[in-house]
Amino acid sequence: MTDGLPRFSRLARWCLLLLLGAAGAVMATQNTSGLADAEQQERFRELTWELRCPKCQNQNLADSNAPVAADLRSEIARLIGEGRSNREIVEYMVARYGEFVRYEPRVGGINLLLWLLPALGLLIGALVIWQRTRRSVAGDAPLMDAAQREQARRLLQEAARQRADGQERAGPEA
Fold first, then answer.
1. What is the 3-state secondary structure (H, E, C) of the chain?
2. Which residues lie below 8 Å from residue 45, measured CB to CB, with a gap of 6+?
3. Cβ distance 94 to 54 under 8 Å?
4. Do the Cβ atoms of 44 and 32 come closer than 8 Å?
5. Of 86, 105, 111, 124, whose Cβ has the fewest other Cβ atoms within 10 Å?
């Protein structure tokens, strides 16, 4: 016994773990029991895979455990039960939650700008690089003329001599 709490036996620990795992599996199942037939259940599965959870960043409604996803799954089942088409259901969800709820948003309007901006950025970047390289190739002038190169060479030789003289005066280092 530690801290006044009785020790759980191995069997009790395993039973608790199994019970928690089963509870998670039960919570993760999708309730399609209210749908009349297999065709409606298949539509439900398709729609919950096609629509994104508004709370979760990158999960569809089928995979999300968020309460809002459970509400949306119930709403989809209700709309299917009312006889609405998949298109009507998706439009309803987009009207309510915005274009974000679609995993594959429409290509048009403001979304067209989002689809084209990366390509436009790459094109502008390529043009800038091309223009800069063209300008530098056309204007390639030597960095130094012959007199400047000679002066730099003399300065480097003089610095090397001074360094060698300084090491000779200092003597061998221990």
1. CECCECCCCHHHHHHHHHHHHHHHHHHHCCCCCCCCCHHHHHHHHHHHHHEECCCCCCCECCCCCCHHHHHHHHHHHHHHHCCCCHHHHHHHHHHHHCHHHECCCCCCCHHHHHHHHHHHHHHHHHHHHHHHHHHHHHCCCCCCCHHHHHHHHHHHHHHHHHHHHHHHHHCCCC
2. 30, 32, 62
3. no
4. yes
5. 124
In tens, the pLDDT along 87-98 reads: 999 999 999 988
Residue that the structure tokens 């290509």 belong to: 107
Q: What is the pTM of this model?
A: 0.49
Cβ-count burial of 102 within 10 angstroms (0-12 exposed, 13-18 middle, 19+ buried)? middle
- The token pair that represents 8 in the structure block: 């759980």
